[in-house]
Specification:
By secondary structure, this protein is of the alpha/beta class. The protein contains 14 helices and 15 strands. Bound molecules: pyridoxal-5'-phosphate.
Amino acid sequence: MLYEDNLPFAKQMDAQDPLRGFKDQFHFPKHHDGSDTLYFCGNSLGLQPKNTEGAIAEALAHWRQYGVEGWFLSEKPWLSVHRDMSELAAPIVGAKPDEVVIMNTLTVNLHLLMVSFYRPTTQRFKILMEAGAFPSDQYAVESQVRFHGLDPKIAIVEIKPRVGEDCLRTEDILQTIENEGDTLSLVLFGGINYYTGQFFDLQKITEGGHRVGARVGFDLAHAAGNVPLQLHDWGVDFAVWCGYKYLNSGPGSIAGAFVHERHFSDPHLPRFAGWWGYNESKRFQMEAGFEPMHGAAGWQISTAQIIPVAMHQASLQLFKEAGGMPVLYEKAKTLTGYLAFLLGKSSYAFKIITPSVSTERGSQLSVLTDENGKKLFDYLAENGVICDWREPNVIRLAPAPMYCSYEDVWRLGQLMK
Ligand SMILES: *Cc1c(COP(=O)(O)O)cnc(C)c1O
């Protein structure tokens, strides 16, 4: 792609963009002069789709209208809503519908699936993860290790980039897996590192983990709705993600979980159970003895959360209308590439720590600044840019393809200069 640093070029790109109509489907926070802000924070909290309000209103109306009978009688019976959700969410992560369940929140799901898939033995007890993983994942893993009576300092192996480098090399990840060999119980990585924006080679990591007999799971918080995923074909054991980053389903909204179908029939897989994961056809017989529902849905614990589900459903509907991840990712590559091009035109000494190869990143560029970084960040904010600052000196910029235009990116580029 030959980019140009001028407004007519950006406008022309927008005119040709098959997703151009979607910007108007979102609410943008207003800048103090009343204009829309330039929103580059979809990696942290996605914008509110305009159909969210109607979806909530509809769920409230059904509750009003049907009371408890809404479980069976409403136009969208609440009892079976998890199946509609799995249908909508499965293509986003490249899974079969029965491998996906929408429930709880991200860190909760991580714990639940670690209960099933982190089964340390005397010989095989270690967890391999990327150094500097998102803190919630670090705390979850540390507490799981302690729960099994193990010492996190021994049981958790963290892999760091080479000296002088910002991102991990796949070969080094695979070598570490190889070195740890049959002491590895679980390989647990982010799909995309939240700080650097590096998109890991999930297929190679899965193959590497399986080669030494470990289980492999991913936290897709920054990957779901951002980059193409093929969890089923890659043979990933389990994955979890949240609904509020690229998936635009509202602050703290409902999250997702994936369990590969090869685990469905394993009777030895322990889990923390609740009635919502119990065999659906017999749930209301209220019998003793847990019998899981088929598929990932069998990991549900509590009653479906109808309002957050409605918000998530409304947003996933837009992903479907947009043509799904292949279409979104196609734009993401050019749009993020355009931002990288514009940053390269600046005389300011930025260093982009996100990989420059488009297949190794999604819609985020992490810009390492110097001691004036905070001033730059404040300057962007004063000029109507919403992005995010990570201590000590990184600005994360995420042009989400669903609602960011080439013109937005061009304007950001001018301010960054
Ligand atoms: C955003 C994020 C979280 C947040 O977890 P919640 O349970 O939704 O609060 C956890 N892990 C990663 C990798 C994240 O990016």
